[in-house]
């Protein structure tokens, strides 16, 4: 008989999420939210933990991909009786964060941008993943992040989920470049290290790699001053 608790045990999920520390690891993806077949999608538990901690009323995700954050908020509103308002956009649905303002102001904005051009989402020149030059990618990401910062209410928080990338023996520390934007993006409040599981790159024989494989990403949280 299997006595393991189901992953969808709401109480346990919420307790674990709100007890989050600066290191998180979710070996088995929670299937309640988003689409696990969407490349580069994220497990919703880290986002859930931050929402439970900050208790925002107005939440936005301008690169929502398969809609993981949208689903988490709908689930919270349904199971907790919260009334969190949510707005999500994505280039695939016509919202270009590089060029368009967010539709209002928010207490909490989550941004999970492409990992440079590791996964190419489209050939649209506005797509950050279509930018092959790393320096240009960082500059365009900066425009997107500053736009998010501009849409925060005073005291609001911006959480950015980013992963570093290695290309042809050269390490591109995206998280360093994002953290160096402190000041433009408010005050740095938290850096969370998230273990990565079930990536396509896991299928590569690590023993043959010259460098240490990257198996983590970061969630960096900034706060806008009051
Ligand atoms: C890493 S995915 C987000 C995955 C999402 N968190 C999920 O769980 O499904 C990055 C997303 O950024 C979007 N994107 C890329 N450039 C964009 C832009 N200029 N404006 C808005 N969205 C953009 C892509 O279409 C893609 O869906």
Walkthrough of the structure:
The chain has 226 residues and is an alpha/beta fold. It has one domain (38-223): 3-Layer(aba) Sandwich (Rossmann fold), CATH 3.40.50.150. It has five helices and nine strands; from the N terminus they run αβαβαββαβββαββ. The chain has helices at residues 10-18, 45-54, 68-80, 134-150, 174-179, and strands at residues 23-24, 58-61, 85-88, 106-111, 152-162, 165-167, 170-172, 187-195, 216-223. A seven-stranded mixed beta sheet has the order 1-8-9-5-4-2-3. Strands 6-7 form a two-stranded antiparallel sheet. α1 (10-18) packs across α2 (45-54). The model is unreliable at 1-7 (pLDDT under 50). Bound molecules: S-adenosylmethionine.
In short:
By secondary structure, this protein is α/β, with parallel strands linked by helices.
**Overall average residue pLDDT:** 92
By CATH reckoning, the class would read Alpha Beta
Helices and strands: which structural class? Answer: alpha/beta
Report the CATH superfamily: Vaccinia Virus protein VP39
Which features would summarize this protein structure in a list?
5 helices, binds S-adenosylmethionine, Rossmann fold, about 230 residues, alpha/beta, disordered N terminus, two-stranded antiparallel sheet, single chain, seven-stranded mixed beta sheet
């Amino acid at each position: 008989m299997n006595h393991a608790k189901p992953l969808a045990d709401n109480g346990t999920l919420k307790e674990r999420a709100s007890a989050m520390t600066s290191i998180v690891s979710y070996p088995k993806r929670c299937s309640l939210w988003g689409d696990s077949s969407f490349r580069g999608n994220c497990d919703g538990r880290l986002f859930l933990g931050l929402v439970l901690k900050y208790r925002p009323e107005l939440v936005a995700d301008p690169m929502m991909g398969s809609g993981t954050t949208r689903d988490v908020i709908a689930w919270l509103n349904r199971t907790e009786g919260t009334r969190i308002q949510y707005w999500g956009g994505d280039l695939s649905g016509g919202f270009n964060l590089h060029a368009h303002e967010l539709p209002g102001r928010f207490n909490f904005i989550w941004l999970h941008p492409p990992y440079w051009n590791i996964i190419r989402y489209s050939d649209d020149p506005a797509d950050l993943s279509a930018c092959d030059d790393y320096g240009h990618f960082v500059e365009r990401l900066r425009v997107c992040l500053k736009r998010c910062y501009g849409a925060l209410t005073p005291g609001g928080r911006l959480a950015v989920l980013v992963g570093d990338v290695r290309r042809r023996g050269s390490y591109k520390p995206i998280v360093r470049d994002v953290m160096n934007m402190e000041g433009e993006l408010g005050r740095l409040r938290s850096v969370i290290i998230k273990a990565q599981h079930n990536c396509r790159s896991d299928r590569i024989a690590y023993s043959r790699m010259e460098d240490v494989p990257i198996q983590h990403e970061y969630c960096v949280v900034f706060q806008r001053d009051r």
